[in-house]
Design brief:
The chain is mainly α and about 90 residues long. The protein is about 55% helix and about 5% strand. It has a single domain, classed as Orthogonal Bundle (Recoverin, domain 1).
């Protein structure tokens, strides 16, 4: 029970951090960097961290070459051209 509670709290903190970082970034910003979106600093951008900034889910999935639900820096760079037509 305590482990589940701790996990829930930790998950909430990570989501809150991602949301807070996103508030500082305009969704229409053209110069979004990998580091700005990687709010938990784990070296990957998750679908939650990317939020609407990378466009439709299909753009994220197309860039996620290894289908792990995370974008590494190279995959993130592939996702950026797909968002230019916003």
């Amino acid at each position: 029970m305590i482990r589940k509670l701790a996990f829930a709290v930790a998950s909430g903190v990570v989501i809150s951090m991602a949301w807070a970082d996103r508030q500082a970034i305009s969704p229409s910003a053209d110069n979004i960097t990998f580091q700005q979106l990687d709010s938990d600093r784990n070296g990957y951008v998750s679908r939650v961290e990317a939020g609407p900034l990378l466009g439709p889910r299909q753009a994220f999935d197309a860039a996620d070459r290894n289908a792990d639900g995370l974008l590494d820096p190279q995959e993130f760079a592939l996702a950026l051209p797909a968002t230019d037509s916003r």
